Amino acid sequence: MTATVVFLIGSAGSGKSTIGKYIASRYGCTYLDKDIVCNTFTGTLLEANGYAAYERDGCDYYRNVVMPLEYRALLDIANENVQLGQSVILDAPFLSYFAEQDYVKGIVEHYGWDSNLVHPLVLQVNVNVDVLRKRIQERNLERDQWKFEHWDEFVEGLRQKVCLWDEVDRIEYDNSAHTLDEEQLKQQLQVHFAHCPYASMQAEMSSDDDASSQTSCKPMT
Fold first, then answer.
1. Which residue of 34, 44, 94, 155 has the fewest C-beta atoms within 10 A of its own C-beta?
2. Could you tell me which residues are beta bridge partners of residue 8?
3. Cβ(181)–Cβ(135) under 8 Å?
4. pLDDT band at 205; cut points 50, 70, 90
5. pTM
6. Beta-strand relationship, 3-9 and 88-91
């Protein structure tokens, strides 16, 4: 069975989690959110070394020591699922790795993923800057304090960090709207999950529902 590994990339607050959970539920993927996977040990490591549990931005210890451990743990768990033929959604910014052109290639080689069995896919979530600020404010997390104190610097950093990864399919989705455009996402993802039995089952259920609806609405004679 072919597994799709979706690298769901984009800024904090861009709505990756909403999109990732939608894709996971539609296609039967394992959904891995880096924050959920890593926050407990990340906070413990930061506090043990004299930092606040929520410090991320502007913290060299987090960037140089803790963050690599987070991504290693995330990818190790993903690989365990891939080995079972299970597609995976990786919900993480990945911003610090954008400049590494062979980043995905290196992951594929490290875990020995067979190109006939594992399909990496980048789904980049973009969002209007004003919408981004509003969403980050609404989630009200302590670790976002640095972002607001250095907003212009934060935004400029996002603009400068362009994903340069080679040898991987890529989709971009603008998530600035108030609601998720499910139809657009389905169209963009269709070819990448054509192998997925769960997707086929959902398509059949949808067709059955349409047929049932048409039958029930047919006027009596």
1. 44
2. 91, 123
3. no
4. very low
5. 0.81
6. parallel
List pLDDT tens digits, range 99-154: 999 999 999 999 999 999 999 999 999 888 888 888 888 888 888 888 888 888 88
Structure tokens at 40: 């407990």
- pLDDT over 80 (residue 59): yes
List Cβ<8 Å contacts ≥24 apart for 103-109: 103/165, 104/7, 104/165, 104/166, 104/167, 104/168, 105/166, 105/167, 105/168, 107/75
- Give Cα separations from 46 to 34, 57, 206 (angstroms): 16, 13, 48
pLDDT at 1 (0 to 100): 65
AA identity, residue 191: V
Six token digits for residue 29: 């993927």
Phi-psi region of 94 (alpha: psi -120 to 50; beta: other; left: phi over 0): left
Collect all residues with Cβ–Cβ distance below 8 Å to 125 and sequence separation of at least 6: 8, 9, 10, 11, 14, 15, 16, 19, 173, 175
3-class SS of residue 66 = helix
Distance between first and last Cα of the chain: 48
- Over the stretch 159-204, which tens digit does the pLDDT of each residue have? 888 899 998 999 999 898 888 999 999 999 988 887 766 654 454 5
> By the 8 A CB rule, do 157 and 99 touch?
no
Instruction: Decide the pairing of beta strands 118-126 and 30-33.
Output: unpaired
Helices (H) and strands (E) in the chain, counts: 10, 5
